[in-house]
Amino acid sequence: MKKIGLTTTVPVEVLIAAGYKPVDLNNLFITSNNYFKYIDIAERDGFPKSMCAWIKGIYGACVENGIKEIVGVMEGDCSNTKVLIDVLKLKGIKVYPFSFPHSHKREDVEIEIKKFMDIFKVEIEEVEKVRNRLNKIRKLSKKIDKLTYIDNKATGFENHLYQVSLSDFNGDIDKFENELKNVISDIKNRESNDKKIRLGYIGVPPMTGDLYEFVEKFNARFVYNEVQREFAFPRGDKALNIYEQYYDYTYPYDSEFRIKELKKQIKERKLDGIIHYTQAFCYRAVEDIVLKQKLDIPILNIEGDKLNTLDARTKLRLEAYLDMLLDLKGEI
């Protein structure tokens, strides 16, 4: 199968039906043992230091790993993606466009997905067959999610990892399905690990993966990962078709649509607080203003840049925030 790079989650059902192996460049970048080299590649090629590390990492991962074709999301994702695509084209990489329409009208979403299917010359019947197959695997991630927030057995990091990986199914659908089944079996055999503070994580997946382990030192744990859960399409099995599934996907659309789902999850998971992660030099940082106005829950905004571990200042802020939440619960 030919590899095709993704700058974010897109209708992979179309790509797989067309005989491609999707590769999420974000995951390729951040899981590398030497992730910093990808940022260095981008900066050597002229990307400014005052640009989001994710964009530079995606660029470096694409170039260094010989990805010859990518899907570039022109609307509904990072505003820097457009210029990233222009530079990748200069490198001779073929770019296929896709957009999540700002209107967020079901008919507009359908038009964009039909355009996408036309580009890759696949029919809706082929796509739906793949969608049904993938949704069986996505159901396994829902089990891990329930093992996190109901049974208190899966860790926040496991919840993050196995949901975020569903953007490309780690490049091998069958292998990833078996991995999920084994992980679920292992987690079910654990003792419950309840903590006093139940946290939600919102915003783009973090550069700083040690965040999850760090908060667990303070009688707290993450029981909700917002965007990662959306990558796993938790409501996809209820959608009648692929058009409905991607219409109901909160990440690329307006804040109001996203906030409705956030409020629902805050209540259902009995969250005490939320960590809102934003990336340096990213326009999404401004969303923190809206979220703090609209969500009736204590929110701490932390910002990441190039490091894949928490810095000392952020650790101090997290510790103070968690102490405050414990105080509010009358535990101090």
UniProtKB/TrEMBL annotation:
Residues 166-193 form a coiled coil. Its cofactor is [4Fe-4S] cluster. GO terms for molecular function: hydro-lyase activity; iron-sulfur cluster binding. It comes from Tepidibacter formicigenes DSM 15518. InterPro entries: FldB/FldC_alpha/beta. Keywords: Coiled coil, Iron, Iron-sulfur, Metal-binding. Pfam families: HGD-D (PF06050). Gene3D superfamilies: 3.40.50.11890, 3.40.50.11900. This is Benzoyl-CoA reductase/2-hydroxyglutaryl-CoA dehydratase subunit, BcrC/BadD/HgdB. Belongs to the FldB/FldC dehydratase alpha/beta subunit family.
